[in-house]
C-alpha cells in the first residue's frame, strides 16, 4: 500500500535544490553515498527537503546496479502508508534515476545527523535521550511480527543514518540492507549480504551466519553508547586500529572497588553528568542497558519491547514526557500495530 504519488526529478533539479551540492548544504555521508540540505522553491512557498545521492560505496561485495535495487526498496518502504505514518519514518517526495545518477528527495527539514551531533558539547542530555527513545520506539514497531508479515530487520543501523529536525526528533532515512516485513529473506544472497556499518555490526553473525532482530539490538546498543559517551567510530579510528565502540565499552565496564563496595562503572561522558537534566541513576541504567544490548550472546540481549520499557522508567523521561513525545510515540505505536494486524 502506498501514499501519495511521488515525483520524478532530474539531476539538474537536484543540483538546483542544493545550490549545486554546495558545501554549505552538505550534511555528511551514509553507507552508500552523501546527503544534503535542499529547498524546493515555488511561487507560494519554500519547502525544506533532504536530498540523498547514492554513489559507489567503500565496501566489499558491491556490484553495479546494487544501488538501483536499494532505491527500489525505498520506493516501497518510504511510500507504505502504514509504515510512513510512524513518527520515526521519513517521507519520500521523489527520486532521480538516469544512466549516471541516482538520488532521492525527502519531505524533511534536517538539522543534522546523529553522527555529526554526537561529539558536540551543545547536544544536550535531554536531546540525546529524545533521539534514543524515539529511535528505540521505531525499532520496536519495525520488529513487531504480525499474522500478515514477519518483522523487519534493518541490518545497517548507524548514527549516520538518522537525521533529526530542529526539535531533535529522529528520522530513519536509509534502509539499504533491510529484510523481512514486506520483503523476502535476503540475508543469504547478493547485495544484501553486506555486513552492516563499521562499528555497529554484531560480530556474532560471523559465527552464526544469521541476521535477526537481536542484530539490530546490538547496533542500537552501540548507538546508545555513542549518545552517552560522545564517542563515534570514524574512518581515522579504523585506520588507527582503535577498538570498536562495544569493545571499548567491554574494557571499561569492569567492576571497581569503591568506599561502599564493588560497583560497575557508569560510562556517561563526564561533561554530560553536569547537565541539569542528568541524574546518576539514569546514567547507571542506560549504561547497563547498553551493555546488555552489546552482549556477546544474542540470546541474552533484550528485545526492543523490553528496551523501550526500560527507557520509560528513566527519571528524565518521566519528567520530560511532553518534550520527548512519549505519548505521541506510544499512541502511534499502538495505532499502527492495530492497522497491521
Biggest sheet: strands, sense, closure? 6 strands, mixed
Tally of alpha and pi helices? 13
Can you give the helix content as a percent range?
A: 25-40%
- Total count of domains: 2
**CATH class term of the largest domain:** Mainly Alpha
Examine the secondary-structure arrangement and name the CATH architecture of the largest domain. Answer: Orthogonal Bundle
Can you tell me the residue ranges where pLDDT is under 50 for at least 5 consecutive residues? Answer: none
Shape: globular
What structural class is derived from the secondary structure elements?
alpha+beta
Order of helices and strands: EHEEEHEEEHHEEEEHHHHEEHHHHH
Strand order across the biggest sheet? 1-5-6-4-3-2
What is the mean pLDDT? Answer: 88
Please report the distance between the alpha carbons of the first and last residues. Answer: 14 Å
What is the CATH topology of the largest domain?
Transferase(Phosphotransferase), domain 1
Number of strands: 13
Assembly annotation: single chain
Rg on CA atoms, Å: 20 Å
Within CATH, the superfamily of the largest domain carries the name Transferase(Phosphotransferase) domain 1
Strand content: 15-25%
Summarize the structure in short.
Pfam families: PK_Tyr_Ser-Thr. With 341 residues, this protein is an alpha+beta fold. Helices cover 36% and strands 16% of the residues.
Description:
InterPro entries: Kinase-like_dom_sf, Plant_Ser_Thr_Prot_Kinase, Prot_kinase_dom, Ser-Thr/Tyr_kinase_cat_dom. It comes from Cinchona calisaya. Residues 21-323 form the Protein kinase domain. Its main location: membrane. It is found in: Cell membrane. By secondary structure, the protein is α+β, with helices and mostly antiparallel strands. It folds into 2 domains: 7-106, Phosphorylase Kinase, domain 1, CATH 3.30.200; 112-340, Transferase(Phosphotransferase), domain 1 (Orthogonal Bundle). The chain is built from 13 helices and 13 strands. It has helices spanning 11-17, 66-77, 114-117, 125-142, 205-208, 213-229, 235-239, 245-252, 280-293, 304-312, 315-319, 321-324, 326-340; strands spanning 7-8, 26-30, 33-41, 46-54, 92-97, 102-106, 112-113, 152-153, 162-164, 170-172, 179-180, 256-258, 261-263. The strands form 4 sheets. Strands 1-5-6-4-3-2 form a 6-stranded mixed sheet, with helices on both faces. A 3-stranded antiparallel sheet has the order 7-9-10.
Amino acid at each position: 500500500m502506498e501514499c501519495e504519488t511521488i515525483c520524478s526529478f532530474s539531476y539538474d533539479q537536484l543540483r538546483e535544490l542544493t545550490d549545486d551540492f554546495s558545501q554549505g548544504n552538505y550534511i555528511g555521508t551514509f553507507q552508500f553515498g552523501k546527503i544534503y540540505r535542499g529547498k524546493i522553491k515555488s511561487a507560494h512557498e519554500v519547502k525544506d527537503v533532504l536530498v540523498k545521492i547514492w554513489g559507489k560505496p567503500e565496501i566489499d561485495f558491491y556490484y553495479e546496479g546494487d544501488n538501483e535495487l536499494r532505491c527500489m526498496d525505498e520506493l516501497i518502504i518510504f511510500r507504505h502508508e502504514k509504515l510512513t505514518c510512524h513518527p520515526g519514518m521519513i517521507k519520500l517526495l521523489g527520486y532521480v534515476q538516469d544512466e549516471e545518477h541516482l538520488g532521492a528527495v525527502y519531505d524533511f527539514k534536517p538539522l543534522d545527523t546523529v553522527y555529526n551531533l554526537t561529539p558536540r558539547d551543545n547536544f544536550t542530555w535531554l536531546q540525546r535521550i529524545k533521539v534514543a527513545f524515539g529511535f528505540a520506539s521505531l525499532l520496536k514497531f519495525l520488529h513487531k511480527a504480525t499474522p500478515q508479515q514477519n518483522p523487519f530487520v534493518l541490518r545497517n543501523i548507524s548514527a549516520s543514518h538518522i537525521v533529526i529536525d530542529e526539535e531533535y526528533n529522529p528520522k530513519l532515512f536509509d534502509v539499504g540492507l533491510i529484510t523481512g516485513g514486506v520483503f523476502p529473506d535476503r540475508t543469504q544472497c547478493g547485495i544484501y549480504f553486506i555486513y552492516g556499518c563499521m562499528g555497529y555490526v554484531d560480530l556474532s553473525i560471523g559465527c552464526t551466519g544469521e541476521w535477526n532482530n537481536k542484530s539490530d539490538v546490538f547496533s542500537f546498543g552501540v548507538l546508545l553508547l555513542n549518545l552517552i559517551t560522545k564517542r563515534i567510530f570514524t574512518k581515522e579510528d579504523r585506520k588507527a586500529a582503535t577498538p570498536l565502540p562495544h569493545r571499548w565499552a567491554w574494557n571499561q565496564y569492569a567492576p571497581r572497588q569503591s568506599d561502599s563496595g564493588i560497583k560497575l562503572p557508569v560510562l556517561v561522558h563526564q561533561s554530560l553528568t553536569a547537565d541539569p537534566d542528568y541524574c546518576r541513576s539514569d546514567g547507571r541504567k542506560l549504561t547497563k542497558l547498553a551493555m546488555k544490548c552489546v552482549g556477546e550472546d544474542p540470546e541474552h540481549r533484550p528485545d526492543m519491547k523490553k528496551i523501550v520499557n526500560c527507557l520509560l522508567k528513566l527519571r528524565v523521561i518521566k519528567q520530560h514526557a511532553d518534550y520527548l513525545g512519549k505519548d505521541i510515540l506510544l499512541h502511534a505505536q499502538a495505532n499502527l500495530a492495530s492497522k497491521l494486524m
